[in-house]
Design a protein that fits this description.
This protein is α/β, with parallel strands linked by helices. The protein has two domains: 13-95, Rossmann fold; 98-199, 4-hydroxy-3-methylbut-2-enyl diphosphate reductase, catalytic domain (Cobalt-precorrin-4 Transmethylase, domain 1, 3-Layer(aba) Sandwich). It contains seven helices and seven strands. Helix 3 (78-86) links the parallel strand 3 and strand 4 (90-93). The chain is flat and about 55 Å long.
Length: 222
């Protein structure tokens, strides 16, 4: 077997930060430590934390009153924070700073009178949190076909935000479809897609070009 390593690879800074937060919480606070959702979408990391006494839950309603709960790197809606306060929970926020950036953009661009479109995957933890920042005021775009159904009061004031972990190639086509219908559609000055995600995608693409003779596995083999 020949193993090829891309560079850069491994966890991004936001994921590493979230993992470190749970590590430190295990050292500083009495067990059990609760984590809402998977701290990161990595089976090995989650299973390791479970062995060390972390309890992963779906909603803060499952956490005993007064206990310690950590919010995952994917971010949460304000309603989750309110529920945690109502239960007097000790909360630790491990939200990735780049996700927080998108949340802040939601409020900024709504204040500026933009219609907000979010390119992302429905029910993904990050998207649920971002949509929850302004319920009913963000339209989700998952694929090109969704663009035809968008309702935009002012085509000159459209802002497009993006789930941070998407593929650059995947969003490129959707963004092009949006701009075909709304030529004045804008995006934030700095990309929402995580720079580390983009760097790793480009590294894999470069490796694939260098080894075009390799036979890639089929879906059944993966």
């Amino acid at each position: 077997m020949k193993v090829l390593l891309v560079s850069p690879r491994g966890f991004c800074a936001g994921v590493r930060r979230a993992i470190d937060i749970v590590d430190q919480a295990l050292e500083r606070f009495p067990a059990p430590i609760y984590v809402r959702k998977e701290i990161v979408h990595n089976k090995h990391v989650v299973e390791d934390f479970k062995k060390r006494g972390v309890i992963f839950i779906d909603e803060v309603a499952e956490v005993p009153e007064g206990a310690t709960v950590i919010f995952s790197a994917h971010g949460i809606a304000p309603t989750v924070r309110e529920m945690a306060r109502d239960k007097s929970l000790k909360t630790i926020d491990a939200t990735c700073p780049l996700v927080t950036k998108v949340h802040l953009e939601v409020h900024r661009f709504l204040r500026e009178g933009f219609t907000l479109l979010l390119i992302g995957h429905r029910n993904h933890d990050e998207v649920v949190g971002t949509m929850g920042e302004a319920p009913g005021k963000i339209q989700l775009v998952e694929r090109d076909a969704d663009v035809d159904n968008l309702v935009v009061p002012d085509p000159e004031r459209v802002m497009v935000l993006t789930q941070t972990t998407l593929s650059v190639d995947e969003t490129k086509g959707i963004l092009a479809a949006i701009r075909r219908r709304f030529p004045s559609a804008q995006t934030p000055a700095k990309d929402d897609i995580c720079y580390a995600t983009q760097n790793r995608q480009e590294a894999v693409r470069a490796l694939a070009v260098s080894y075009t003779h390799l036979t890639l596995p089929t879906n059944r083999e993966v």
